[in-house]
């Protein structure tokens, strides 16, 4: 299956592009996406540990199964004051 990954600004600086496409096996989970992305783009690996996955604007668990054509946003938490 093919999925699109939209990276938040702090992650996008570490990747070749702000939007990436990955081919994953059927039944892949968000965790599988993280593993594959870290393997393909080692510069992202440390930052992925704190990245939050969103599908359809809602936070999802890393064990959630993905579907062909889905877009997953990966955002890093921001603190401010």
| CATH H level, superfamily name | Beta-grasp domain
Terminal CA distance: 41 Å
Number of domains: 1
How much strand? 25-35%
The radius of gyration is 12 Å
Stretches where pLDDT falls below 50 for ≥5 residues?
none
Name given to the CATH architecture: Roll
The share of residues in helices is 10-25%
Write down the CATH class.
Alpha Beta
Keywords:
81 residues, alpha+beta, Ubiquitin-like (UB roll), 3 helices, 27% strand, globular
Walk me through this protein's architecture.
The protein is an alpha+beta fold. The chain has one domain: Ubiquitin-like (UB roll). It is built from 3 helices and 5 strands, in the order E-H-E-H-H-E-E-E. Strand 3 (52-55) and strand 4 form a beta hairpin. The chain starts with a strand and ends in a 6-residue tail after the last strand.
């Amino acid at each position: 299956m093919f999925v699109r990954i939209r990276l938040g600004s702090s992650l996008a600086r570490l990747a070749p592009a702000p939007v990436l496409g990955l081919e994953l096996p059927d039944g892949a989970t968000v965790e599988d996406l993280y593993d594959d992305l870290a393997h393909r783009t080692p510069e992202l690996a440390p930052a992925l540990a704190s990245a939050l996955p969103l599908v359809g604007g809602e936070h999802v668990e890393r064990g959630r199964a993905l579907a062909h054509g889905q877009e997953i946003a990966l955002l890093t938490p921001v603190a401010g004051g």
